[in-house]
Structure formats: structure tokens, C-alpha cells
Design brief:
Blueprint (H helix, E strand, L loop, with lengths): L5 H29 L1 H11 L2 H24 L9 H17 L4 H12 L5 H31 L6 H27 L3 H4 L1 H8 L5 H12 L6 H28 L8 H17 L9 H12 L4 H33 L2
Helix pairs in contact: 1-13, 1-14, 2-14, 3-4, 3-6, 3-11, 3-14, 4-5, 4-14, 5-6, 6-7, 6-10, 6-11, 6-12, 11-12, 12-13, 13-14
Length: 335
């Protein structure tokens, strides 16, 4: 039986079901620890403010769309229009959350939708470059969160170990990135046959070399463009911290939440997102992780679990919009 037969698909389904069952179990445990009545009361306390939460989430998508359009203009005069970039990001995020493929689903979807406005090479490189800026901003945020956490006198050993791991990973990643941009290795062009199989069509080594060079040339961008893209990525994280702060301030027991505490909660959430992106919606993991960290910070487990659930509602609403936009986009392409 080949890989295209029913058994590999059957095994993948079993693994997916097992992951979903484990996530559901974690979700149930987290909700029971926090208390169902407490969570319901917290949602009621939010009231219409949940609309502000959704708008902040949409604004974050718009911020990354803006950063992507700027990256796309490095190789194309007009670049990808903002509206098209926003639709692609919403649709890609929905695909990445709905499937275990994560980034392997979301980023190719953005490339496909982006190449309707620019060349395939420009679409691929702009997506890769924007993701590079985003990854660097996430690393900086995680390092900032570790530094702030270690300033606290009552840091639990488990968080110290996690912080040390983040620092080591960030340093290794930084050294690797420095080496890559200094040596400009021809990675894609050497893997032309593999890339061709993934794309299901022959891949030209010359085209892949040009694509690599366009990515490496980021270091030669004008300082103003680099700063502009970086500023949008920073704004993405600022909106996320504002979202966390707003939610915690609105629910019972969180009235005294500070921006520092909101920053630490968002740092934790960003770490979970990166580490468990392959699990659809990170079911149960968000709630367990957020509840544990909020308890360690003195905010209480219910606050963290409620925060994760409110943000899950926001994600579901935006993903529903992304799926609807994707369906409409595909319908307009049909003859």
C-alpha cells in the first residue's frame, strides 16, 4: 500500500482525533479549576467590551497586512494592495488554525493570494521577509518578557528555567540569522528538485537563486523602510498587550491588573502560540498555560482561563470571517 492509500490517511485521522481529545481534556480540566460560574460571570462583566476585543484582533491583522504590503513593494512598484493583503492574512490565519499544518497551510495560502497582484517570486519573498520581521519581533518580545519576569523577586523555578530556555533559543536563532545573511547560502537553489515536487511543477534553480537573493537583500533596504516595517510589527504586539490588559481589567478580580502583568501574560500567550502552532486552535493548551501563569503572577487561575477563552472567541469570529472571505474569493475565480 502506497502513501496515497487509505491507511496513512486513517493513521493521520487517528492522531488528529487523539490530539483533539487531549486538548478537550485539558480544556475541561482548566474550566473546572477556574469554576464554570466564575467564567460565566466574567464573560457577563465584559459585556459589549468583547466587541472592542474583536476590533483589536482585527486591527492586529490589519497591522501585519500593512507590513506585508511594504515588504512586497521592495520588488514591485505597486506591491500587494492593502485590502488584498488583509483578506489573505485573515484567510491564511483561518487555515493555519483549522488544520494541524499550521504555518504550512497559512503561509502558502498567503503566497497564492498575493501572487494575483505581484509575481510568484515577489509574493514568496515578501511573505518570507514579513515573517522574518515578525519572528524577530516575537523573539524581542519574549526576551523582554524574560527580563521583566526575572526582575520579580518571587519568580518560580519553572519560569526561570523557561526563561533561560527562551534566552538560549533566541541567541542561537540570532547567531544563525547573522551567519545566513553574512554567507548568503544557496539553500533553495540546491533543493530545486524537492521544491519542484512540493510545487508539483519544475522549479528553476536560477529563479530560486533570484528569490534567495531578494530575501538576503533586506539588509540593504533603506533605513526608513526597515524602520517602517519594524514599527508595524511592534504595533502588532502593543495591540495584543492592550487586548490582554482590557480583558483582565474588565473581569472580576482583575481590576488592578497592570500593563506589566498584561505584557507578561501576552508574552506567555505568544510563546504558547509559537510552540504549539501545529495543534489546531491550541485547544486546552491556551487555557491551561494562561491559567497557570496568571496564578503564578497572583492574578488567579480564573482570570487566566477566562482570558484564554475570550481570546478564543475572538479568534473564532475572525477565522469565520477569514473562511467567508476565502470562499467568496474562490467563488469569484470560478468561470
Amino acid at each position: 500500500m502506497t502513501d496515497s492509500g487509505p491507511f496513512p490517511r486513517y493513521r493521520r485521522s487517528i492522531v488528529s482525533l487523539a490530539i483533539a481529545a487531549a486538548g478537550l481534556a485539558l480544556l475541561v480540566i482548566s474550566v473546572r479549576q477556574a469554576g464554570w460560574d466564575t467564567i460565566v460571570n466574567s464573560f457577563r462583566s465584559l459585556g459589549p467590551w468583547i466587541l472592542v476585543v474583536v476590533l483589536l484582533g482585527a486591527a492586529r491583522m490589519a497591522v501585519r497586512a500593512r507590513a506585508w504590503t511594504l515588504c512586497s513593494r521592495a520588488q514591485h512598484d505597486t506591491g500587494i494592495p492593502f485590502r488584498a493583503a488583509l483578506v489573505a492574512i485573515l484567510a491564511g490565519d483561518a487555515l493555519g488554525n483549522l488544520t494541524p499544518l499550521g504555518l504550512l497551510a497559512s503561509e502558502p495560502a498567503k503566497v497564492v493570494m498575493g501572487r494575483r497582484h505581484v509575481s510568484t517570486a515577489a509574493s514568496v519573498s515578501s511573505v518570507a521577509v514579513e515573517n522574518g520581521f515578525y519572528t524577530a519581533s516575537v523573539a524581542a518580545m519574549l526576551l523582554g518578557g524574560v527580563w521583566v519576569m526575572l526582575q520579580r523577586a518571587d519568580v518560580p523555578p519553572v519560569l526561570e528555567r523557561m526563561g533561560e530556555g527562551i534566552v538560549v533559543a533566541a541567541l542561537v536563532g540570532g547567531l544563525v540569522a547573522l551567519w545566513v545573511f553574512r554567507t548568503r547560502p544557496a539553500v533553495l537553489s540546491r533543493l530545486a528538485p524537492l521544491v519542484g515536487r512540493l510545487l508539483r511543477r519544475p522549479a528553476s534553480p536560477d529563479a530560486l537563486t533570484a528569490l534567495e537573493q531578494s530575501i538576503y537583500d533586506v539588509v540593504h533596504w533603506p533605513t526608513a523602510r526597515l524602520a517602517h516595517v519594524a514599527a508595524w510589527e511592534v504595533l502588532f504586539h502593543a495591540a495584543a498587550v492592550a487586548e490582554v490588559w482590557l480583558i483582565l481589567r474588565m473581569i472580576p478580580g482583575g481590576e488592578g491588573t497592570t500593563l506589566i502583568e498584561a505584557f507578561l501574560m501576552e508574552t506567555t500567550g505568544r510563546f504558547i502560540t509559537v510552540a504549539f502552532k501545529f495543534i489546531p486552535y491550541r485547544l486546552g493548551i491556551d487555557e491551561m498555560g494562561s491559567g497557570s501563569v496568571s496564578q503564578l503572577l497572583g492574578l488567579g487561575t480564573p482570570a487566566g482561563v477566562t482570558l484564554a477563552l475570550v481570546r478564543r472567541v475572538r479568534i473564532l469570529l475572525l477565522n469565520a470571517a477569514g473562511v467567508a472571505l476565502l470562499a467568496r474569493d474562490q467563488a469569484t475565480l470560478e468561470p
